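To make this tangible, this section ends with a sequence with its structure tokens:
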Amino acid sequence: MVLAVCVLAHLALIVYATRQGITAEHILGRTRGSWSFGLFYGTFVVACAVHVPIGLSAIAREWLGWSKKFSWNAARVFGLIILVMGGRAVVAVIFP
């Protein structure tokens, strides 16, 4: 549920920014140092890091024939990568 809310809010922000002609530089200028944006996107990153490995593990088992243990371990590594990379992006927005 949290991920769905984050995705919908993120898509709404993209549509708004696109229709207003706002550039990435302008968006970063408005959001730098914003703890509310940091909290929102931090929540988004954590939700993705939890949700994505679940789906990837299932796909790896069904499509690639990987064992349950191997697919879960590989998916967890991918989730950790999402967490680290997304966390770095969030920190870059919060701390100018």
User: Anything to note?
Assistant: The mean pLDDT is 94.
